[in-house]
Write a structure and sequence with these properties.
With 488 residues, the protein is an alpha/beta fold. It is built from 17 helices and 15 strands. It folds into three domains: 276 residues, Rossmann fold (3-Layer(aba) Sandwich), CATH 3.40.50; 124 residues, no CATH class; 52 residues, no CATH class. Helix 13 runs antiparallel to helix 14 and helix 16 runs antiparallel to helix 17. It is globular. The structure holds adenosine monophosphate (AMP) and zinc ion.
């Protein structure tokens, strides 16, 4: 596979161009992705970003790279405003629910892991937490202060953006000019400690009622949100590493500040390739918990959200997200999901046919050229929708061989089987089992639902409820609609 390793191009948000991927250390890749702030359940939008980077991770592994994938858990320091104002999101939730902050963190970290596991995301190699790296964050602040790019006021430490901009360009990643940022910024209302409104907190002094706080050389306080990713990526991947990813909405200020912190502490830009995933939208607007415009994965799998016609399996949802390029927005609609479900089944039917195909003397198409298109698609900035289209060319061929209208040689068949299975299961991360399990259950469920229908027709509510509750206990939900009942 080595020659294909040398053909990978990645769109680098920093240069705005697709660039050939050359790792810092041959055969090794350091990958950092910003993880969730664990103060609420992850919604499908969050999951899209994590699935996009799971695809990146999986494809790098498929190419034979040894990847160290670090994805953090933000469990302190992310304030409500994304800037330096408002309450800490986790502390606020803890206050409202009268729980320990770490109970909130535990509950939503478990939810995050459960959901990503349902979507068949691979776990990262290291999953560090912000609270577990307070010492490293304090050390980084000390370095930034000693290099002259931060200042202390009343127990808080701020990054001096204007000073930094004298030596390094600030705003390069998000394409912002410092003059525009200054003229567009608000006055220092409530943040008078800052020399300039663009400055951001590295450390915040904690009031006596603040619940998440630690001792530091500047007094009792807590770290600023942007700092944790710089401290943890440096610790596990070094001062300078290959790829940093996150959702598009993190480009500014979060990633811009990460670049500034890295340059200010080590003198060099920390990351070679910046990658940003685009947003999942619902009703044309960014899916977001705070605006109420969101769907939870569990509602999706159970079909219990009013915006959905029915339930969808995790693999179908994953397949749906893979049918859009990670840099494009993707709008979530029932029609699009229904189409993905049909496509997913067609693909899986063909994959199941592969071991049953008969081989011939020769192949009626160039199978190696067909397989090469899978690599071409993914080497072009992880273009999963093109990969899926190319896999459907293979589906057509498989079905034609099965119908006796095309032929495949034994060696081509074994190569095609190996590559298709690798791309469908290992790279796209889809799973066959759910569909097979469901198809085995189909006739049984038809019978059970018919008996329930008869009970309902006879107004025998006890039996009909007994059947529904029994199914629920077995993890099967039934939704009654005007065209009958559907189950998952
Ligand atoms: P947060 O927990 O808010 O820091 O978000 C975790 C990740 O989800 C970040 O990388 C965000 O950019 C990403 N994200 C948030 N909303 C969406 C969305 N609607 N579509 C795709 N990614 C999102
Ligand atoms: Zn981050």
């Amino acid at each position: 596979m080595s020659e294909r390793k040398n053909e990978l191009f990645i769109y680098n948000s920093l240069s705005g161009q697709k660039e050939k991927f050359v790792p810092i250390h041959k055969n090794f890749v350091g990958l950092y992705v910003c993880g969730p702030t664990v103060y609420s359940n992850v919604h499908l939008g969050n999951c899209r970003t994590f699935m996009s980077f799971d695809l990146v991770y999986r494809y790098l592994l498929h190419l034979g790279y040894k990847v160290r994938y670090v994805r953090n858990i933000t469990d302190v320091g992310h304030l409500e405003s994304d800037g330096d104002t408002g309450e800490d999101k986790i502390a606020k939730r803890a206050r409202l629910e009268q729980l320990e902050p770490m109970e909130i963190v535990q509950e939503y970290t478990i939810d995050f892991h459960d959901v990503l596991n349902e979507f068949n995301n691979l776990p990262p190699s290291i999953e560090p937490t912000a609270t577990g790296h307070i010492i490293e964050q304090i050390e980084m602040i000390k370095e930034i202060i000693s290099n002259g790019y931060a200042y202390e006021v009343n127990g808080s430490v701020y990054f001096d953006v204007l000073k930094f901009n004298e030596k390094f360009p600030y705003g390069e990643l998000s394409g912002r000019k410092i003059e525009d940022l200054i003229s567009g910024s608000r006055d220092l209302d409530g943040q008078e400690e800052k020399r300039n409104s663009l400055d951001f907190a590295l450390w915040k002094n904690a009031s006596s009622e603040h619940i998440m706080k630690w001792p530091s050389p500047w007094g009792i306080g807590f770290p600023g949100w942007h700092l944790e990713c710089s401290a943890m990526s440096t610790k596990y991947l070094g001062d300078h590493f290959d790829i940093h990813g996150g959702g598009m909405d993190l480009k500014f200020p979060h990633h811009e500040c990460e670049i500034a912190q890295g340059c200010a502490s080590t003198g060099k830009s920390p990351v070679n390739y910046w990658m940003h995933g685009n947003m999942l939208t619902l009703n044309g607007r960014k899916m977001s918990k705070s605006t109420g415009n969101s769907i939870l994965p569990k509602e999706m799998f159970a079909g219990t959200n009013d915006q959905l016609e029915k339930a969808y399996s995790p693999s179908v949802v994953r397949f749906f997200t893979m049918q859009a390029h990670y840099r494009s927005t993707l709008d979530f609609t029932s029609e699009a999901l229904n189409a993905s479900e049909k496509g997913f089944e067609r693909l899986m039917d063909a994959v199941s046919l592969l071991p049953k195909l008969n081989s011939s003397e020769s192949s009626s198409i160039d199978v190696q050229a067909l397989i090469a298109t899978f690599y071409t698609a993914m080497n072009d900035d992880f273009n999963a929708p093109i990969l899926v289209a190319n896999l459907f060319d293979a589906v057509k061929f498989i079905n034609s061989v099965n119908d006796g209208k095309a032929t495949v040689s034994a060696s081509d068949l074994s190569l095609l089987t190996k590559e298709i299975q690798a791309f469908v299961f290992n790279v796209l991360g889809l799973k066959l089992s759910e569909k097979i399990e469901e198809s085995k259950l189909e006739p049984v469920m038809d019978l059970v639902l018919e008996l329930r229908q008869q009970a309902r027709a006879n107004k025998d509510w006890t039996t009909s409820d007994q059947i529904r509750d029994g199914l629920a206990n077995a993890g099967i939900t039934v939704k009654d609609g005007k065209d009958g009942s559907v189950w998952r």
